[in-house]
């Protein structure tokens, strides 16, 4: 079975990827500026999770292998 995304699905994944990249950029920037340690820990956790989500979304676009 070949894995392909339809055009609308590819655009949806690209839209999600763009949004997650924006969120990741903001979390990284704000974690550097945060003075509260608890807030900094939350932001750093969000950076880790966001990075994993971006990698998963990228796999949807780049993995087109035949199974």
UniProtKB/TrEMBL annotation:
This is Spore coat protein.
């Amino acid at each position: 079975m070949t894995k392909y995304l339809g055009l609308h699905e590819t655009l949806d994944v690209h839209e999600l990827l763009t949004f997650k990249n924006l969120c990741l950029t903001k979390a990284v920037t704000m974690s550097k500026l945060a003075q509260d340690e608890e807030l900094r820990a939350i932001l750093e956790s969000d950076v880790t999770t966001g990075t994993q989500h971006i990698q998963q979304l990228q796999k949807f676009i780049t993995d087109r292998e035949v199974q």
